[in-house]
Amino acid sequence: xxxxxxxxxxxxxxxxxxxxxxxxxxxxxxxxxxxxxxxxxxxxxxxxxxxxxxxxxxxxxxxxxxxxxxxxxxxxxxxxxxxxxxxxxxxxxxxxxxxxxxxxxxxxxxxxxxxxxxxxxxxxxxxxxxxxxxxxxxxxxxxxxxxxxxxxxxxxxxxxxxxxxxxxxxxxxxxxxxxxxxxxxxxxxxxxxxxxxxxxxxxxxxxxxxxxxxxxxxxxxxxxxxxxxxxxxxxxxxxxxxxxxxxxxxxxxxxxxxxxxxxxxxxxxxxxxxxxxxxxxxxxxxxxxxxxxxxxxxxxxxxxxxxxxxxxxxxxxxxxxxxxxxxxxxxxxxxxxxxxxxxxxxxxxxxxxxxxxxxxxxxxxxxxxxxxxxxxxxxxxxxxxxxxxxxxxxxxxxxxxxxxxxxxxx
Length: 410
Hints:
By secondary structure, this protein is of the alpha/beta class. Helix content is about 25%, strand content about 20%. It has nine helices and 18 strands.
């Protein structure tokens, strides 16, 4: 992260919103705060502290939007702008950074720099007056939802899996070349310095296609890997994820996993809907900020397969976040994944459950055909093992998928 030239004023100071009103959100969303488990409150506070630290350390590139969420500093997103909107915005001090169409969707967008000296919330408000009924938002950031728990081990060599006809995509950090696999990876960058290599992105990929001693749930598959972080402190933004989804849709990738969480964004919501209509199933993690955190996106968008995590005893992870719906659980702890150096490490988090579910669904959804989506989900439902209360429930969804897919940590 870039060093801060000067610390921001305290969160909640005049002119700055609270971070998603997280401090009061525990009471608002879950009732009396004294009834909320202490762990859940601690996770919310940890989230608030992480975001506060991030914003303060990167004040030139990251700012709080009108909802108190971290976003690209000094930039405003507008859906489907026309020439008149652009001209009006420029006349009022905005500067056009980028204007284009999300590949594979036909959805237009523009990025504008805020007028000089104007805070991001005020710029969003001003642009909404110009844009009329078009959606206006900040370019909010999304964060990974997993952690590395154990020391690296020397990679062991499994026999490489045969090439497979399965096809999947992932949107995350950059992916290192996997060890000892016949999988094929198509890489594309959607951020400064991308595509690069990251531990988180490599771990997610290893759970899909395998690497060294880590077996993949779709070993030998072709993987489209979009790096939306690169070397940009404000990477993982909504516009980058939207572009990555557009690339996947244009490539007719049938299943895409996103192990990232952030707030709702109107441009990204539209792109998700458009990609789904073209036959791509999107699988996303619910995050690790606990049940008191705001609902996570993209997991909460309609039609997205929302995934939570369980440990080796099939117990729900205490830190698992929440979405507006939960579809499946999968292993998310007591397991190995590969890091960027190719070594096997112990990982934990819903980030690592989501790729296992995506891999299983890919076995039932070989092509990006919208008419085949329901049948693929029905097949996954039949395979899922019921957990918790009988039948679907808000903790485990419709059951455990890929329960035997994880490589156990020793």
